[in-house]
Amino acid sequence: MEPLLSSFFESPMLKLLFLSTPVGPLGSGIGGGVELTLLNLAQEMSQRGHQVTVVGPKGSKVPNVFCQEISGNWQEMIQNNHRDTPILLPENSVLGNMWDYARKVQGDYDLMVNFAFDWLPFYLTPFFYCPIAHFISMGSITDAFDEIMNRVAVKYPKTIGVYTHSQAETFPFNNICRVLGSGLNLSLYNYCDTPDHYLAWVGRIAPEKALEDAIEAATRVNIPLKIFGKVTDEEYWQTIRQNYPDAPYQYEGFFNTIELQEKLSQCKALLMTPRWVEAFGNVAIEALACGVPVIAYQRGGPAEIVQDKKTGFLVEPDNISELVDAINQIDQIERKQCRHQAEADYSLKALGDRFERWFYELVEIP
Ligand code: UDP
Known about the structure:
It contains 14 helices and 13 strands. The protein is an alpha/beta fold. The chain starts with a helix and ends with a helix. Residues 196-341 form the Glycosyl transferase family domain.
């Protein structure tokens, strides 16, 4: 017989299969912030004694957790799709291959967690007998995706997780989304109290992120802007280079977490200027973790993260003059407050607690 006390007090171990984004290997940066969220969550769950396997495109790197690498062609990035863009799968699709693998091994797991923002995993959900949780990493993009996600949300109401309330509000099923936020291994981020005379911009270089607004603001205040991140839209990047030949910016490149935090921590502020409803904005909490205040447009995830006038400034969206005013007041922000906020809200423990509670509910463990 099971020892009653231990089964009563100990948290049961779950067997979890995490299915990654199919737009590129984990660690490449092509997938954006969901890569970091998945990696952090996989490590935290495994640290808590759960058995975690990650399934990702060939070349994926997942420290300390087993990763089943799957070959095949990556999905196109869909950030710039129109509402009526059709559903597309390449020949020998890695997404299809990942879900073929999942179908074969589903009997070995208590729960599968889908991190792909794509049509296929939602369509396949009713055909699996292993329960599937879906963590949605973007706001609404196409009607076809909304329709299939809504179908799953209605049939399996507890299974849809999102980063933020503002992201949930972009979907027709917003009232049944589980808001889970994000979190970081804070021990990797060093606090810096004495920044250099630089501003920072961090993220995928793509039109929805509106890097040009940050360059424009940096030009007006004449403070150099350091740009960190993957160029995922080369044409957009070349247009920026042509349009701002003399602006005070430096493209630094794409870095791993350790290198990124070191360079970011030395900046006066992070500028976040997304044109779309940013689902979360992992870069905001990474900056806070280093003690770097965040100046962001007041919409989407950053508006739920930044504490206005305390850990940064929230300004009218798409308004460069307001960005400039905020930059000019940045010394009013105490950098210690930024680190404190990251510690209070975005630790790995906080992330793990939120997701673990959700997972237990889904497998009906009280
Ligand atoms: N990033 C990185 N190295 C860099 C620049 C960015 O690893 O040099 C990562 C960053 O840590 C973050 C992600 O890129 O996890 C961007 O995610 P965010 O949630 O801000 O936006 P998304 O790309 O998901 O829209």
